[in-house]
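Protein modeling request. Please complete all fields; requests missing the sequence field cannot be processed.
Requester role: graduate student
Desired output: 3D structure, token encoding
Chains: 1
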Amino acid sequence: MRIRPSLLAVAPAIAVLVAGCHLFRKDFDVAVGNRTLGPVTVFANGQQIGEVGSSQTATFTVDLSVTGKTTADAAGNPIGSTAIAQATFTARDNATGTLSAGAATTLIHNVTAYVDVAPCVLLSGGSTGPICVSVANTSSGSSQAPACNFLLSPNTTQSFDSAGGTGTVSVQASSGCSWAAASNVAFISVTSGTSGTGNGTVVFQVQPNLTGQARTGSLTIAGQTLTVNQAAIAAL
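Delivered output (236 residues):
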């Protein structure tokens, strides 16, 4: 499998049909959007296709063996003769070496596969888990694959006194981009806005600090870290 990376806009692949020969173009465009905190290495069928930085989108051209004359549309439903290829995408966190389980898709000429790399949120414990990969087909009519960008407001650090309290964070997200919010420590809990699509608000509760020492915790919101500093109870 020959890989040719490109950072240009997605260009449609064209199938070439020669009667009796079943010759097809093997190039398929793959756009990758990375919503993890660090850069990832992306693989197609186990072979590296390139690296994508945190909150970045890149486009790669993948050369795969096609199956021949097959009837399928962009969603894999039968309609007529066209060239398709099968690929399973995985992503490896460059900092931790964590490899995602991967997601399979059918690559079809004139359709670009958009691979979205995002952190998984474990339902039990509410902590951020390993990276996930989900694949969606983008019509060849699109000149550029969608990029998901997230911004936390007012900032990525909030401070509380020993009594604790309620905190609010606004999430600014590109249209159609999904995100999740989870606490990474026991003394902070997300009370609303555990997930959303597009712009949204996360509300969290900080418990009173009875430890006698200042402490720091964090939440992961839309793949970004919100740091919470809490003061110790004042000495009597």
